[in-house]
Write a structure and sequence with these properties.
Layout (H helix, E strand, L loop, with lengths): L2 E2 L11 H4 L18 E9 L4 E10 L5 E4 L4 E7 L2 E2 L8 E4 L6 E10 L9 E3 L2 E4 L6 E2 L4 E9 L3 E4 L3 E7 L2 E7 L9 E4 L2 E7 L3 E7 L7 H19 L6 E7 L4 E4 L2 E5 H4 L8 H7 L8 E2 L7 H16 L3 H15 L22 H22 L1 H15 L3 E2 L1 H12 L4 H8 L7 E11 L2 E10 L7 E9 L3 E8 L3 E7 L4 E6 L18 H6 L3 E5 L3 H5 L1 H8 L4 E4 L5 H6 L1 E5 L4 H7 L9 E8 L2 E11 L2 H8 L10 E5 L2 E6 L7 E4 L15 H8 L4 E6 L4 H17 L3 E9 L3 H8 L5 H7 L2 H4 L5 H12 L3 E6 L2 H10 L7 H4 L13 H13 L7 H25 L4 E7 H4 L5 H8 L4 E6 L12 E3 L9 E3 L2 E5 L6 E6 L4 H5 L6 E5 L2 E2 L3 H9 L6 E10 L3 E10 ...
Helix pairs in contact: 2-4, 4-5, 5-6, 5-7, 6-7, 7-8, 8-9, 13-16, 18-22, 19-20, 23-26, 25-26, 26-28
Bound molecules: zinc ion (ZN).
Length: 1020
Amino acid sequence: MNVKHMQRFCYVILLAHFLNIGFSNPLPAEAGRLTAPVHYISMEFDLQSNSLTATSRIELPAGLNLHLSMSHLNVSRIIINGHPAEAGPGNDALDIPSSSSEQEIVLTYSKEIPPDSTTGNMISQAGITLIGNWYPVADQDMLFKLTAHIPIAFEAISEADEIIAFLINDKKQVTFRFPHPLFSINFIAGPYAVSQEHFGEEKILAAYFFPEDAELAAGYLAKAKQYLERYEEMLGPYPYNRFSIVENRLPTGFAMPTFTLLGQSVVRLPFIVDTSLGHEVLHSWFGNGVHMSPQEGNWVEGLTTYLADQTFAADAGRDTAYRKEQLVKYQSFVRPDMDLVLRHFSNVGHGDMKGQPTRAVGYNKSSMFFHMLRNKLGSDVFTASLQDFFKRSKFKTAGWSDLQTSFESVSGMDLESFFTQWLDRNDVPVLAVQQPEILNKDGYPVIHFNIVQHNDTPYMLEVPVVIKTAAEEIHKTLSVSEPLTPFEIPLASVPRTLVIDPDYDLMRQLAPSELPPTWSQFLGTANKVVVLPDEKYRALYKSLMDDLEESAIQVLLQNEVTDNDLAENSVLFLGTDGSLSRSLFAHPDHPEEGFTLDVRPNPLNPSQVAVLISAANTEQVEMAARKLRHYGKYSFLSFKNGRLQDKNIAETDSGLMIELLSLPSGIETSKSQTFDDIITRLLHYQVIYIGETHTNYEDHQLQLEIIRALYEDDSRLAIGMEMFTRPNQSVIDRYLSGELDEKSFLKESHYFKTWRFDYRLYRDIINFAKHNNLAIIALNLEKDIVNRVFKAGGPNSLDDEEASLLPADRKLDEPGYRQRIKTAFMMHAGQGQNGDFSGFLQAQALWDETMAETIVEYLETHPGERMVVIAGKGHVDRINAIPPRVARRLEVSQVVAINSIGSPSDSKTADFVFFSPPASLSAFPVLGVMLEDTENEEGVLVTALNPQGQAMEAGMREKDIILAIDDQPVNDVEDVKIEMLYKEKSASVMVRTRRRAFLFGDKELDIEVPLKSAEKTHNM
Ligand SMILES: [Zn+2]
């Protein structure tokens, strides 16, 4: 049979009906008593009326029956064994029972092929293509003897080892001889320019190209010759006498015995000679030379893909990338619930979306199967096995079991379990590394780790592993067959990175770090929604929506989308100016013209993607939408007038990578600079971030010194502070102007409620600003709003007024942001609360975006001023925290400085690192009580006492209400903190408490409590 596929041909229309013909009779034994029926076809054409008339004469050997299907023909006469006969019911089939003697069936028929036929057939002045249902089709292989009468200007081709043409009157008669039975035959004719040469031993290599493409023939012949020679050397002699490359008016990419039929639009693509042509040539061995057995599944496409496409990629040094693309494609389209197993892959299926999962199994997983088999057996044994298989199966039907037989007999190995696990399972291995650890033994490092398989039943695998040290890469192949396999590998030097399967030698599931976000991933996922900013966009994106809605996709307006919808799905945003898209990706940098498709990981769920699509107008959408399905492997596509302008695949890890060791970084001391030198450098920038660990006094000392030094050089300076929220601005202003005293400032700004940290850490900075008339800008968003976004998993729960306080543009996918926030989340929340992470991420981004927005608002309204921004180290990260979010809003020079204390840093996250001398505050004075606000206005409730504490010793009790400290009334916990702030030097305080006495009513006591300092508790 013919092998038809469209692996490399994006433009091929697949003729599915042709592949669905049943195979019910066994192949006639070539050397047995029975020979195949012989089918003589003689035909003529009327190009004007797009029709053919023909006579079929079939010689049916004794003992064989025959079923002929002719529903597609106008049959005018049937003669069986010399007697006129009627065809079967409806005239569309003929059944001839077997007989003890040879029988003869003669049919005369005609067929018209309308010019607009979509069958792949055509009869016209431009050419003739007959590739399906153009003669009475039998249910078994036959020997064909075809004679055609064609216009003198035409050349014709069919399956043939020999072609004889001569002129009769004003017609050309062409006869085709082919000694091998075929299930079906094809016929092509047209005004071809034929060029031919020899290859191998007297074999003919020919090109049938239309005159307008004749100059392409030489290139095709030269490459085809290379392929023929390559595969003859690899597999054994080419099985026929001729090979022709035939150009077709219709868009096809088919491999027939003795020729390949390539559509004109395909032939003209420059890369076809380097890719698909070789694939088609190879089908002469596998697919045509050896037929696949339909009952046993299609091994042909996988083997051909591996030995052609994958091998050509290897020639170009990109076989690793090629295999990774295969795995990405598989993972994008094949889900376990589809229950697709390789052994059941039978035909090519549809070239459209619905066929993608099947194709990912039949081409990609199958090609990986042969790759793993070759790695297991070695190249020589692998090739020798294929030669053995080809020799045994030439001109016969063969299935997976025949392949297994050859591989086992040549290798001497039992491959049953290998074949079974890859052919009969619907899952693929899901590998992970657990507990990587480096220990030292006698001064040498030993790496320990477990390879874990997250599959119901473990696979038997040979897992390639690379261990990278500073000096070398150590390659190992580890056998894994259990759910968990521990390994221990002694090394000569310290390992930095462990990589599992770096060259993509295993069929396996890719980790999120390896999987680029692609258009295919969106198309393939089961969970997806499309989001429109409003109804207007439906018309703009109509042509794209029509395509998408074929797959019953959910389309929502942005105000209907819940936080959950975003966190659980792959989301396609049509238009990038909608508020929802802006709340996740701000304004993406898309070209204004044309059509842009931009796929990113969904920041709220890394196993899903988000797609941002923007377009100039409906025409641009229409022109690009038609092409999109050919570009599934890309992460970014930009079209203009339907022509591709830009494309890329997002970079991802190569292999499953585990970073083992982060050694400390350092700087050359000769490169270190004095404080004054650095200040001089900092003066070149308009925004200066000084990161802090909130509790490190050194960091705050450094902030003060930098502010002081900058101010001395240039007084146009403001201080932006993370510690205050925007509604506090007026309170801060009133304190700085002297209108409020410090206690009132702390009270009214609710410093101790919102920020909590020891005020003395910031006091000097704030007072420096006060004395020098520097503005302090409250940068942060109201804590209550952020908390609610965190708890609800997103901003859906906010009312309109609250939502209006949020910055509209928020970018959740700054590079590395998610990973950094995730680490922080795990530290704060522990392992158990993963579900809350998308809320946490949204909340964190709200902070950074709000602070960035506030900084920009200030700078825009105060031109010429410089701002020092004081915030936690995480917020000043140069790559993904506040600085890029400021840069997105305003072109401004920015610099990041941090102290070396506490956390590692590198040149990516900060520009300057200071080395501060150690410093600390005296400990905060405490009473040794736990406090709570009371329900009424007055006093603070003691909920517990430190048993070793001073308050306990002084006679305070649980449930006492503290009314005043040193005569200053206190009505909430904040008041106590504010009062205690001033007690650091006192030896003791007088605490007025009210105590409930059971019978005698409340009584008030004045208790003197000696003060003691506590390091880190927030107890009072
Ligand atoms: Zn193929």
